[in-house]
Design goal:
The strands form four sheets. A seven-stranded mixed sheet has the order 3-2-1-14-13-16-11. A seven-stranded antiparallel sheet has the order 4-15-12-17-10-6-5. Strands 7-8 form a two-stranded antiparallel ribbon. It has two domains: 40 residues, no CATH class; 231 residues, Sandwich (Jelly Rolls), CATH 2.60.120.590. The protein contains eight helices and 18 strands. The protein has 315 residues and is α+β, with helices and mostly antiparallel strands. The protein is 18% helix and 25% strand.
């Protein structure tokens, strides 16, 4: 099953459609994670507390005493703005996105991708057909400038991802590529609440995944200091659940970006959810970096915003 299926899945990725058609047994991350100690990140006090149900843990923030008097623990590298978009902005954004074509993707998702062509295995970058971003979402990027953590963020990819329960949509635990995508992983959540499930990453001996070895080329530029082995050992057999409420902004950086895998479990998709994922380049591809010659044209194209009602979009 290594070749793409009609539903868009390939390899170990599955959705409800191909599981039924080809008799594929999905990997049960939900049950596996249930065997670990689970914690929930509270965006109101930036601490983690024991529990699995993020709504319950957030509700406990307003209790007296807060969180039942439980002392929260630090989990650095997470920023959440619970009110990043208004209801009107969300509605207008969704209307515009749904006027653009959606492509099938793996694990029951659909996507819209605006960015350069990347080959993670061969570490090759090309502008290809990238012509900037749809004007309907320009205000989102402009608003990043009001977030101190994102003051220097330069968007070079915007990807819309749709998760629907009727397709069994999810995304397996992973770390975003570290050769080309920079430290800050930015997500704007639309339509429904969900949660990001974090699990500690332990690399396999002799194997390189996610192009993590490139991290050593720019580690000194990181915004968030990485955990040492002793600190990481304290999180062994732990799961951290990060809420992604409707209309919120989530930014991961530092340890959650490089030392934890993140996933969206099928069981956490209750209604249609759409998110906008934004990526920046690694320091090698920024101005002054060793590879800026390959990315300079892409940065110029990334300044463009086009009206989807007057421009034909290739799906």
């Amino acid at each position: 099953m290594d070749h793409p299926r009609p539903c868009g899945c390939k390899g170990r990725r599955t959705c409800l459609s191909c599981e039924a058609e080809f008799g594929i047994a999905p990997i049960d991350f939900y049950s596996t994670f249930q065997n670990n100690d689970s914690y929930v990140y509270c965006p109101r006090c930036s601490k983690i507390y024991p529990g699995w149900d993020w709504e319950k843990v957030l509700a406990e923030h307003s209790d007296t005493p807060q969180h039942g008097g439980v002392q929260g623990e630090d989990y650095p590298g997470v920023y959440i703005d619970l009110d990043f978009l208004t209801t009107t902005e969300e509605a207008e954004l969704l209307q515009g996105l749904d006027e653009l074509p959606w492509d099938v993707s793996q694990s029951g998702r659909r996507k819209q991708n605006f960015g350069p062509k990347t080959n993670f295995k061969k570490t090759r970058l090309r502008p290809a057909q990238f012509a900037g971003f749809p004007q309907l979402s320009e205000f989102v990027q402009r608003r990043f400038e009001q977030v101190p953590l994102l003051a220097t963020f330069q968007t070079i990819e915007q990807c819309s991802l749709e998760y629907c329960p009727e397709r069994g949509a999810s995304i397996d635990p992973h770390i975003d590529d570290c050769w080309i995508w920079g430290e800050r992983i930015v997500t704007v959540n639309l339509l429904s609440d969900s949660v990001l499930t974090m699990s500690p990453y332990r690399g396999e001996e002799g194997k390189t995944k996610y192009n993590l070895h490139f991290l050593e080329q720019y580690r000194e530029h990181l915004l968030g200091e990485l955990m040492d082995e002793e600190a990481l050992a304290g999180y062994e057999n732990r799961i951290v659940r990060i809420p992604m409420p409707r209309r919120s902004l989530l930014v991961l950086y530092g340890p959650p970006r490089y030392q934890w895998e993140h996933s969206v479990l099928r069981e956490d998709i209750k209604e249609r959810r759409v998110c906008l994922a934004y990526r920046e380049f690694t320091p090698m591809y920024l101005q002054g970096g060793s590879e800026f010659g390959q990315s300079e044209e892409i940065f110029e194209r990334a300044k463009q915003f086009w009206d989807h009602r007057t421009v034909k979009v290739e799906s």
